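Students often ask why we bother encoding 3D structure as a string. The short answer is that it lets us treat folding as translation between two languages. Here is a chain of 272 residues written in the first language.
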Amino acid sequence: MKILFIGDIVGKPGRRALKELLPKLIGNRGIDIVIANCENAAAGFGVTRDVVEELYENHIDILTSGNHIWDKKEIIDFIGDYETLLRPANYPQQVPGSGAVVVPTALGESVGVLNLAGRIFMQPIDCPFLTARGEIAALKKKTKVIIVDIHAEATSEKKALGWYLNGEVSAVLGTHTHVQTADEEILSGGTAYLSDVGMTGSFNSVIGVRKEAIIERFLTGIPNKFDIAKGDIRLQGALLDIDSATGKANSIERISVRLEEKAEADEDEERL
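And here it is in the second language, the structure alphabet:
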């Protein structure tokens, strides 16, 4: 089974990358199911219902997220309407939405996805390690193929979780930093690991935001408006080959595809 996990989609450039690059990638690589982190898909902060619908229309099967999922307050009203729109499972139980799901593929197999958030340099929510144990036990009753999105700042926390879940899940993939790492490997128990799958959006930027705004912030320390950058659009992620009979990973490959730019006039300022 081939599974594509797409790194944090940032604003309109990231959504454009999906629309123009993903269909060909799916066809050329024989991808069975697509997972993507969507927490920055609406102008870089959170998601709206319209953006969620757009992502599903552009061949995404499962949407994961992280701490920014709550940036658009309307999410509270609609996150429960989508079984495949996940928030980290280690938020308190009374929080709307779900942190795990099992979905069928076109071939009749099934894939489980678990979304977790780290705690180092981030919001101190419930323990992702302990949460993972309970969630994975439930997922294993339905499928052997389980993909974990660990949305976290610290590489050490992500790698520790990878080893903690080694042999229990098919892959542990990091998101959040928007910087694709080069440490992909298959751990001893057959679990694929990558510290961060990267970003889908503008690379003429600082992690998706206009570089001038970020530089000004560092120079002055004064809060300013973070507009989404334009140009040098890329789709990044990880392509997994999983043995559906055992749930173990056969391979993991970093993906980074650049969108051939059209005229600058096609690149409108981010408004959505």
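Translate back mentally: The two ends are 35 Å apart (CA to CA). Keep this in mind for the problem set.
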